[in-house]
Amino acid sequence: MSFEVADATGFPGPQTGDGFDFIACFDCLHDMGDPVGCAANVHKRLKKGGTWMVVEPAASDKIEENLNPIGRTFSAASTMICVPASLASNGPALGAQAGPKRLSDTISKGGFKSVRVATTTPFNLVLEARA
User: Fold this and answer.
1) pLDDT tens for residues 96-118?
2) Under a CB-based contact definition with an 8 Å cutoff, are residues 125 and 56 in contact?
3) What is the DSSP string of the chain?
4) What is Dmax (Cα atoms) for the chain?
5) Which of 32, 49, 54, 60 has the highest local Cβ count within 10 Å?
6) CB 103 within 8 A of CB 31
7) What residues does each domain of the chain span?
8) 88 CB contacts (<8 Å, ≥6 apart)?
9) Tens digits of residue pLDDT in 45-101
10) What is the distance between the terminal CA atoms of the chain, rounded to a whole angstrom?
């Protein structure tokens, strides 16, 4: 086993067709400078029918539904950590309150045709994207 450091938009691996069955990203897509580039690279590295699991902070597409203790905490963290991290790389600053529609749209722009919210918890959205 080995570990490598690589950018999300260019990590190495097999090409589509003989690629990975499963790739997972935890609490990071919303922080990235190029989340669409990450999605495109993941799509390229998955086998046909492979799955990308994206775990992100729980958020609604409607701001009023984020006005609760968890939403306020995530919003504060987003302002101080997530948004500046993305902006530092000239990114779109999705932030920790991106919501499932914005996340799904971002993932779809990377080439995924099927994106759905697989499950939610009070703290996380778990999205499934199929290659």
Assistant:
1) 899 999 999 999 999 999 999 99
2) yes
3) -------TTT---PPTTSSEEEEEEES-GGG-S-HHHHHHHHHHHEEEEEEEEEEEE---SSGGGG-SHHHHHHHHHIIIIIHHHHHHTT-----TT-HHHHHHHHHHHTT-SEEEEEEE-SSEEEEEEE-
4) 46
5) 54
6) no
7) 22-130
8) 33
9) 999 999 999 999 999 999 999 999 999 999 999 999 999 999 999 999 999 899 999
10) 26
Partners of 124 in the beta sheet? 57
Q: CA-CA-CA-CA torsion for 110, 111, 116, 121, nearest 10 degrees?
A: -30
What tokens were used for 88? 């530092």
Contact assessment for residue 38 and residue 87, using Cβ atoms and an 8 Å cutoff = no
State the Cα–Cα distance between residues 47 and 131, nearest whole angstrom.
7
Residue with tokens 């722009």: 109
Residue 14 tokens, joined: 């097999």
Q: How far apart are CA 110 and CA 59, in angstroms?
A: 21
Q: Which of 101, 123, 131, 119 is nearest to 39 (CA)?
A: 131
CATH code linked to domain 22-130: 3.40.50.150
